[in-house]
Task: inverse folding
């Protein structure tokens, strides 16, 4: 029919409103409809928003014109209802159909699977088999549903059904089975089925490479890729998967080879370019990474984020801030993950001014309010203020948050503890309990640490006991380390040793290190020697623990032992990693270590330092 052809042409050209006007004109002129008219109208309605009410109107008109019982029309209506999210309407129509073909059953099964109701989909599949045998399209949907069941047994059963009914010849079905086993995480079945395939297309290889990449098995990824090249031509997706796997492990050489291959074959896909950018950034080649970033014509949030993460991971914080400003001026709004990474970086550096700038930007833009990521972002901001020493600003942010999760409460408790305000941490913990928030394992680590830094021995011991008896949380090594540190700092070293001896788990080096630190403070020789012996048995190559032992020996006047410990360190070539500090000045961050002379104004810096020393 000419009218159907005209409407269909308008829809395919994107002129949906014009197609709807054509249908209205058709009705006004009294032009007769056929079973193909209403599917086109359904498509128009779907493209205009796809509301269930409009679908019902189309259905009523079709019934009035005598097309309600037509199988083709019924199938399109089922598909329409499914896409509108009205699965109950679709099932009602399906049950009312006098005649149903394979498309009817497959559409209905697809509806259930797509909305996550796999049980109903599988039940309908079994019912269908009493009337019709499924084809490859039906099996593709069923195999997709098996991924939702998370049952390898269910997947294996349908795999057997496919073989029994001679549907395994279809490459799409083969790949769907492979994808199903991959999503179920049954790696042996993936390898076994992949090895049995006579014909493997690029999709088969990509699925196999993808699962090993997600498991971090870069050796297997490289092996598969090398084997693949002699059989099929790897596409953009293949290169992207392999490059991403190489990036996670910092393997630059093969990544460069794949970059050359992509250039040689003229592959410049946006996702591929972003994965290359990420590879070079993670391997420390930020110059190349930045050049690739500039060459990408249309950058999305993922591209900006990859470059930003690259700067942050390599400590190029000034460049990261500059990129954020560039993004604000010409790019999309930064994702919450990008802002969180920047805020966390500034927290670690103590860069309060830069952290405030990010906070101000989030407030001005009202970013992510009402979103789950907003709570995580605000928690990072609270942590940034705490780490930068601005506890009052952290508490203001905390109090203004309408929704606080356990991570937010724990961060604030930890903040009070790190600033020596143990009583405030305990008060906040009590408030959290009254608010109905149940503490977790990490909350108690923060609370015990707060008590330790404030010398609140009784309160800390009470909190440690309440973990198990009141909240049902079994203490782990972190909790035992905290309670040993608490007792050690307060001079109760024999009690701390008794706690270690009663532990249900084997004490690690952190626990013995906490005890040895207490012995250094209170010059307790016998317990210190025992702790040092246990400590060096666990980590004989840790320079930091040798330094701690040397300091403990010095605190009790064991100078011969100090000399012996330092001699052992020298013979083993053990050197403690030097600490470093940083300063924020005029919007930039400058890092330095002891005796550092790398700054371009080093002479002026040391002149000022000498002046300050003379003023004492």
Result:
């Amino acid at each position: 029919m000419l009218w159907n052809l005209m409407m269909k042409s308008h829809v395919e050209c994107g002129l949906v409103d014009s197609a709807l006007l054509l249908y209205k004109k058709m009705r006004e002129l009294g032009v007769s409809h056929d079973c193909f008219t209403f599917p086109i109208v359904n498509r128009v309605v779907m493209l205009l928003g796809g509301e269930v009410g409009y679908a019902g109107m189309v259905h009523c008109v079709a019934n009035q014109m005598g097309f309600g019982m037509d199988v083709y029309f019924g199938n399109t209506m089922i598909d329409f209802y499914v896409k509108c999210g009205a699965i109950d309407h679709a099932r009602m129509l399906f049950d009312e159909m006098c005649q149903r073909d394979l498309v009817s059953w497959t559409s209905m099964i697809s509806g259930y699977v797509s909305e996550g109701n796999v049980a109903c989909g599988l039940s309908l599949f079994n019912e269908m088999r009493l009337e019709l045998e499924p084809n490859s399209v039906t099996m593709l949907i069923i195999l997709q549903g098996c991924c939702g069941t998370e049952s390898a047994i269910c997947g294996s059963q349908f795999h057997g059904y496919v073989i029994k009914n001679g549907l395994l010849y279809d490459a799409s079905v083969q790949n769907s089975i492979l994808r199903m086993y991959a999503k179920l995480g049954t790696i042996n079945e993936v390898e076994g089925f992949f090895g049995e395939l006579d014909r493997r297309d690029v999709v088969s290889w990509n699925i196999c490479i993808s699962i090993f990449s997600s498991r971090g098995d870069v050796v297997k990824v490289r092996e598969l890729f090398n084997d693949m090249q002699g059989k099929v031509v790897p596409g953009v997706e293949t290169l992207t998967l392999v490059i991403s796997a190489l990036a996670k492990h910092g393997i630059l050489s093969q990544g460069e080879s794949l970059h050359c291959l992509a250039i040689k074959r003229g592959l410049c896909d946006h996702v591929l370019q972003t994965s290359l950018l990420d590879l070079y950034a993670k391997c420390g080649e930020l110059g190349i990474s930045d050049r690739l970033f500039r060459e990408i014509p249309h950058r999305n949030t993922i591209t900006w984020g990859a470059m930003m993460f690259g700067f942050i991971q390599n400590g190029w914080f000034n460049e990261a801030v500059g990129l954020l400003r560039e993004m604000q001026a010409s790019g999309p709004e930064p994702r919450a993950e990008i802002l969180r990474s920047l805020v966390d970086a500034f927290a670690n550096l103590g860069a309060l001014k830069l952290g405030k700038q990010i906070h101000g930007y989030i407030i001005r833009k009202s970013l992510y309010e009402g979103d789950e990521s907003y709570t995580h972002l605000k928690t990072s901001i609270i942590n940034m203020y705490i780490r930068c020493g601005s506890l009052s600003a952290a508490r203001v942010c905390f109090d203004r948050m309408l929704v606080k999760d356990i991570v937010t409460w724990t961060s604030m408790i930890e903040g009070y503890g790190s600033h020596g305000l143990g009583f405030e941490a305990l008060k906040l913990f009590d408030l959290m309990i009254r608010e109905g928030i149940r503490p977790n394992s990490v909350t108690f680590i923060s609370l015990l640490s707060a008590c330790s830094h404030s010398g609140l021995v009784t309160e800390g011991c009470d909190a440690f006991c309440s973990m198990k008896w009141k909240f049902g949380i079994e203490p782990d090594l972190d909790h035992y380390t905290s309670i040993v540190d608490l007792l050690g700092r307060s001079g109760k070293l024999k009690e701390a040793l008794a706690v270690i001896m009663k532990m249900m788990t084997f004490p690690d080096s952190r626990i013995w290190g906490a005890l040895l630190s207490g012995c250094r403070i209170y010059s307790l020789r016998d317990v210190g020697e025992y702790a040092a012996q246990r400590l060096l048995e666990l980590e004989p190559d840790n320079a930091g623990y040798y330094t701690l032992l040397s300091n403990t020996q010095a605190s009790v006047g064991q100078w011969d032992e100090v000399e012996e410990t330092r001699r052992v360190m020298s013979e083993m070539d053990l050197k403690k990693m030097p600490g470093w500090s940083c300063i924020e000045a005029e919007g930039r961050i400058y890092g330095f270590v002891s005796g550092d002379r790398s700054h371009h104004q080093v002479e002026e810096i040391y002149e000022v330092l000498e002046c300050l020393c003379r003023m004492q």
In short: The longest helix spans residues 372-387. The chain has a mean pLDDT of 81.
